[in-house]
Amino acid sequence: MSGRALLATLSVMVGVLVFNPAAWARRPPGARGERGIQSEPKTPIDEFELMPPEQQQRALQRLPREQRQKLQERLQRFNQLPREQQQALRNLYNRLHQLPQKQQESVRKAINRLSEQAPDRQRAMRDELRTMAGLTEQDREARMANPEFRSTFSRREQGIVKDMMPVLPDR
Question: 34: which DSSP letter?
């Protein structure tokens, strides 16, 4: 992956921190070896962390100032997370990366739309996604058709939740 593509993907991935991923992202089956060694593919964060510090700085310097600052803040928040939450975020990235390109783009747009919402509405949608993470796909669809769901969330919010469903763990 080129440096610019790595940083762009890294920025989007770290940006999903707004989800509090440990609350609803689960390890995919077989992702943990006998001693808990990470066996899934490397994420952009893994690639970035493996770079020597000088190479990291060069890669960051290529970004526009505002984007670089945002990415550095996101990386700092990511690095402050407990290992379990970092791994949950990596699992989320891996699920996102396994989707077809159009679905990936839809999820990324939903992430951006979510981050634009008021904090209380973000919290409500994150709570709903956590609830849906424990449901089967059929139960998720039924929940979204429920009048209570429709009255709790605006059409825009319903769309955000629906577009986020492909990265929820399979049940």
Answer: T
Looking at the fold, whether 4 and 50 belong to one and the same domain comes out as: yes
**d(Cα 106, Cα 164) in Å, to the nearest integer?**
8
**pLDDT tens figures, 154-168:** 999 999 999 999 988
Distances (CA, A) of 50 to 2, 56, 73, 139, 145: 14, 9, 19, 41, 45
- Measure the CA–CA gap between 16 and 20, rounded to whole angstroms: 8
Query: 46 lies in which domain range?
Result: 1-98
Short-list 10, 161, 13, 160, CA closest to 92: 13
110 in the same domain as 58:
no
Q: How far from 86 is each of 79, 93, 128, 130, 161, CA to CA, in Å?
A: 8, 11, 21, 17, 22
Domain count along the chain: 2
- Same domain for 10 and 51, yes or no, is yes
- Give the tokens for residue 80: 């402050």
Tens of pLDDT, residues 2-30? 455 545 555 555 544 333 343 333 333 33
Q: Which two tokens stand for residue 14?
A: 């770290």
